[in-house]
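B., you asked whether I could sanity-check this one before it goes into the benchmark set. Here's the sequence:
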Amino acid sequence: MNLAMTLVQNEYIEDPHDFLATHLQHALPAFLAQSGWFVALYLVSHGLIKIVLVAGLLRDKLWAYPSAIIVFGLFIVYQLYRYVFTHSIFLLVLTVLDLVVIWLTWHEYRYFKKYRVFAQ
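And here's what the prediction gave me:
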């Protein structure tokens, strides 16, 4: 509730019955309560996407290597974007782990592309 009041404080000073400020004051606490669900949904989707990509990697599917690199890269971009606003160490740890996964995927992709035949 304090965040909602901080965000609409200037509008309240000018006009205590301001339509936008009044609705934001009531909507923001509900939205902020839902942010826990967003974090959970993000982590579950992050994990599920990684499971699908890792399954492809384990089966030596050629498409899985560049797909994994691109998807993990997109996760990194989003995590760094969120870090700018939250300064969460957890996001940095997740980003470092994703960077390690990208490096390992790239290294394995180059190795398998050079020395193995892929299952199509």
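One thing to flag: Residues 36-115 form one domain. Otherwise nothing jumped out at me.
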